[in-house]
Amino acid sequence: MTQGNPSGAGRPAQYKMKVEKGITVTMRDGVRISLCVYRPDAPGEFPALFAASPYQYEMDEVPAYPLFLWRETGPVEWYVGQGYAYVHADVRGSGRSEGEFSFMGKDEQNDYAELIAWIATQKWCTGKIGGIGQSYYAVAQWLMACANPPGLACIVPYDGMVDQYRGSNYHGGIFCSYRPIWYTWLRADNQHRPVNKQGRAIMRYDLAGAIIEHTLDDEFWRERSPYWRLGDVNIPVLSIGHWGKMGLHLRGNILGYEELKSPKKLVVTGAKNTFEAHHMFDQIEFHEKECLPFYDRYLKGIDNGFMDDAPVKIFVRGTNAWREEKEWPLKRAKYVPYYLGKGPSGSLTSINDGSLSTEKPGAKEEGTTYSYPDWEWVNGVAAMDPQGRLDPVRRVLTFTTAPLDADLEVTGPIVLKLFASSTAIDTQFIVKIADQHPQDEAARNKGDQPAFTPASKGWLKASHREKDEKRSTKLRPFYAHANPQPLKPGEIYEFDIEVLPMSYTFKKGHRMRLEIANSDSPLTDGIFAHPYHPTQMGSDTIYHDAVHASCLLLPVIPRG
After folding, report:
1. What is the pTM of this model?
2. What is the distance between the alpha carbons of residues 112 and 542, in angstroms, rounded to a whole number?
3. Of residues 322, 484, 333, 470, the one with CA closest to residue 413
């Protein structure tokens, strides 16, 4: 089989690989699940790694290029060479497995437990199993761990959410286009049949219809969301996330770590996007350094001191350096309010060019109003500059600091306290934090926008402002998404908006920028966009005076 970087770095292989394809395991209801077993071609017993998804185990033979995003299993052959069996299953209703696909529903979750039990009883297995895999495979691991099936000894959810509603389908209660697009592709991929490969299941499940039907966080989502059962997990967990995966898994990896009571570690990498995260999981060097010691400790019982190290390791963007920490969130973080102001910042072209500062606003400072839809929008809130180039901030609200007089590190959870009103009975807030790079005067005079690096995002549908007070903290508001309440037009409301955690150093001379809009755009946010609906018409006002002091509450790490 083809592997990512199969020969190069890492410990030399101790074993050659034996492949057994098309093995079927019969479930409690008679459905036969198809899987492939990769194991050392040698006598004896070995611990096993278990991966399950609808991405078809046949894809393991495809080169692990970042282009192929469904190749999320890691370097299978390399793990076998290190003395592990690797079992890859097609979940029911996908690949070569029988039954009806249900997108991580109860039947699929019960299958995980039965397959783990089957693996544990095989003559080539020691009885200890660890979870492995990215994205869908990672969410499946969280669900496996919540059930605590005998034989499951540890999991490594790499890039995996714990909350289906808030993590990908309805960010802050706002519909996200990602999952229906994903499922359309998945169905087409599963139903494609080369003439010499028959027997694949036809996925008839209407996931897009289910998403549209379940607009609130109801039992449909909770059945498929590990978050609500994380307190039941009693096995060690290594949670690995990426700062760049804001639209999908980042929140889950961090929230999952925070909620666990079992032995745990958190790693957050500097991967900037989906492609970097996927490519990282293909690399043997990454697995040898971050994952293999964990598996060796809990599946082979090797006393390698892995859990004696710091429990948290984060990549600090901006300085681009790894750092170990004793806890998350960091106790030494000082929460500093950065207040929204009238401006101008004089640094870019936007609707308002507002300011962002640690100085409290004046008592009589007027609010900032924006109307929508905007005549310059071309697809969602995206606009074009006079030269015909895409300009994501030209027609949105911005609040920007003055050039920083020293490096500023922001590491931890973030809250945007926003005072706002609307002429409509509902509106949306999509907020982004960016590192705005210095720009010379010549470029500014030409009308060019400053270069920037995205740092974090947050979302909230105004009618979903009701919090779950039992689950909310000062640093992370948790919305119930169960009882939408319309706005009273013209009335001022206080919204506490969860902005995703980050670890970012804004360098001296750079500016920090906050963007606010009531939508985004596929041109700027890709498949994780939130489509602008034609019925969204009205005006919203953001207040930033002494009584209504809208501010960004930032976890600043003291210098030195």
Report:
1. 0.95
2. 48
3. 333
